C-alpha cells in the first residue's frame, strides 16, 4: 500500500512537470528491462499463448457468441447496452490507435503529461497488454514485416495474422528480435512503467468494475454473469476490429505508395479500426501522425490528435511533405494514385546515398528509429510546434 501511494505521488508530479523535450536516450538490452516489464512474459505463471488461449480464446469468444446469437436476438439485453458498450470500446480503441500506436510506438507526435496519462488509461480499457509489450511487438512487426520474425505475418495466412498468432508459441525468430528491438524510450518512460507495475489493478477497475457498474445502474435486473458476458463481448468485438489491420489490411487493397509490401489501403478496415486501414501509406511512412495521406478521411484517430493539438496538449506532429510523398508514389507505387506519373516513374534522376540506404536496409518502425534516412528526416514537416505542454 505504501509503495502504491508513493507511485501515485510520483505520477502526480510527473503530470504537473513541464516537458523538457530532451532526447537523451541510450539503448537498453533485454536483460536490463525494468522488472515490471518482465512479469508479462508469463502472466499468472502461464506462457503468454496459454493465457491468451484461455482469456481471449475460450472465455472471450464464447461470450461473443452468446451475446450476438442469444442476448441480442432474443432481447435479453437492451439495444442501449450495445450503444453504451460500443462507445466504451471505441474509447479503448483510441487508446490503442492514438496512444499505443501513433504516440508510443511510432513517436509521430509529442504529448504533455496529462494527455499521456489519459492515453494510458484509455489503452488499459482495451486489454491488449501493457503499452510496452504492445509497442515492442509492433515495432518488430514493422521492422520485419512478412518474415518469420513478424509476430503476425500475413504470409502465414489470414487466420494466423488475424488471431491465432496469439494462441501459438512465438516463432524463434520473433523471440530473437523481441530481445534486440529498441524500446529504450519505453523503459525510461515513468508513465509506461507505472502502468506496467499496476496493470492488473488498473485493468480490473477500467475493464470490469467501471463499465459493469454503469450497466448495473442502467439495468438493475442485469445479473452479474450477464454483465460479465457483455464486457467480454465488447472486448471481443474491439479485438476483431483491431486485428483486421493485421489480416485484411495486409491482404486486400491498393498499394499506391509501395507495391512491394503486403500492407494495403483498405477503407473498411479504417472505418472499423478508428482510422488505421490506410496501411500501405502507414508502412511506407510510419512516422506520419495521420497514418494516412488524407487527414480526416475515415480517420477518427487523427481528429482526436488534432483536437488535443489545438488545445496545446499534443504538439510537434510529424507529417510527410508533398515532395517526399510524390517522389515515393512515382518511385515505388503501383500506379493507382492520381499523382502517379509514368514518365516520372522512369526518370533516371540519381538517388542519394541516404535514399539508397533506406530502400535496401530494413524498414523503419518510426521517428525514433536510427535507420530512418537523413533525407526523410530533413524533408518531414512538423505541425503544431506550440510551446504549451501543460
Short description:
The protein is an all-alpha fold. It is built from 19 helices and four strands.
Can you walk through the features of this model?
This protein has 390 residues and is mainly α. It has one domain (44-383). The protein is built from 19 helices and 4 strands. The strands form 2 sheets. It has a two-stranded antiparallel ribbon with strand order 1-2. Helix 11 packs across helix 12. The longest helix is centred in the N-terminal third of the chain and has 27 residues, at 79-105. The radius of gyration is 21 Å and the shape is globular. Mean pLDDT is 86; it is low at 17-25 and 343-360.
Helix count from the secondary structure assignment: 19
The beta-strand count equals 4
| Helix content bin | 40-55%
What characterizes the major β-sheet?
A: 2 strands, antiparallel
Question: Key terms for this structure?
Answer:
single chain, 390 residues, mainly alpha, two-stranded antiparallel ribbon, 19 helices, 4 strands, 55% helix, globular
Write the layout of secondary structure elements.
Elements: H1 2-16, H2 35-38, H3 48-71, H4 79-105, E1 110-111, H5 113-125, H6 131-143, H7 158-162, H8 172-180, H9 184-187, H10 190-197, H11 199-218, H12 224-243, H13 267-272, H14 279-284, H15 300-310, E2 314-315, E3 317-319, H16 322-332, H17 342-345, H18 353-360, H19 374-379, E4 381-383
Antiparallel strand pairs: 1-2, 3-4
Helix pairs in contact: 3-12, 4-5, 4-6, 4-12, 11-12
Amino acid at each position: 500500500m505504501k509503495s502504491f501511494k508513493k507511485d501515485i505521488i510520483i505520477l502526480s508530479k510527473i503530470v504537473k512537470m513541464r516537458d523538457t523535450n530532451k532526447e537523451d536516450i541510450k539503448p537498453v538490452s533485454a536483460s536490463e528491462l525494468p522488472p515490471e516489464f518482465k512479469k508479462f512474459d508469463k502472466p499468472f505463471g502461464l506462457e503468454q499463448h496459454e493465457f491468451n488461449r484461455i482469456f481471449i480464446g475460450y472465455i472471450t469468444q464464447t461470450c461473443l457468441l452468446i451475446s450476438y446469437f442469444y442476448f441480442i436476438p432474443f432481447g435479453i439485453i437492451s439495444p442501449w447496452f450495445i450503444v453504451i458498450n460500443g462507445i466504451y470500446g471505441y474509447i479503448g480503441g483510441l487508446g490503442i490507435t492514438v496512444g499505443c500506436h501513433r504516440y508510443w510506438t511510432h513517436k509521430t507526435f509529442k504529448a504533455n503529461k496529462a494527455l499521456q496519462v489519459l492515453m494510458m488509461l484509455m489503452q488499459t480499457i482495451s486489454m491488449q497488454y501493457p503499452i510496452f509489450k504492445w509497442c515492442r511487438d509492433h515495432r518488430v512487426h514493422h521492422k520485419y514485416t512478412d518474415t518469420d520474425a513478424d509476430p503476425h505475418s500475413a504470409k502465414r495466412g489470414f487466420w494466423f495474422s488475424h488471431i491465432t498468432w496469439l494462441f501459438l508459441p512465438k516463432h524463434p525468430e520473433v523471440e530473437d528480435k523481441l530481445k534486440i528491438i529498441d524500446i529504450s524510450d519505453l523503459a525510461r518512460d515513468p508513465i509506461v512503467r507505472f502502468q506496467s507495475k499496476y496493470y492488473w489493478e488498473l485493468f480490473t477497475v477500467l475493464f470490469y468494475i467501471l463499465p459493469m457498474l454503469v450497466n448495473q445502474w442502467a439495468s438493475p435486473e442485469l445479473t452479474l454473469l450477464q454483465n460479465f458476458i457483455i464486457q467480454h463481448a465488447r472486448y471481443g468485438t474491439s479485438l476483431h476490429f483491431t486485428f483486421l489491420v493485421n489480416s485484411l489490411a495486409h491482404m486486400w487493397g491498393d498499394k499506391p505508395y509501395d507495391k512491394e509490401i503486403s500492407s494495403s489501403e483498405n477503407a473498411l478496415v479504417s472505418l472499423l479500426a478508428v482510422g488505421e486501414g490506410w496501411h500501405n501509406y502507414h508502412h511506407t511512412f510510419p512516422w506520419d501522425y495521420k497514418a494516412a495521406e488524407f487527414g480526416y478521411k475515415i480517420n477518427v484517430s487523427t481528429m482526436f490528435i488534432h483536437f488535443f493539438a489545438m488545445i496545446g496538449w499534443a504538439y510537434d506532429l510529424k507529417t510527410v511533405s508533398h515532395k517526399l510523398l510524390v517522389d515515393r508514389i512515382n518511385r515505388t507505387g503501383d500506379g493507382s494514385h492520381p499523382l502517379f506519373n509514368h514518365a516520372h516513374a522512369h526518370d533516371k534522376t540519381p538517388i542519394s546515398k541516404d535514399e539508397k540506404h533506406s530502400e535496401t536496409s530494413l524498414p523503419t518502425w518510426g521517428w525514433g528509429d536510427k535507420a530512418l534516412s537523413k533525407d526523410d528526416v530533413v524533408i518531414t514537416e512538423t505541425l503544431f510546434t506550440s510551446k504549451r505542454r501543460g
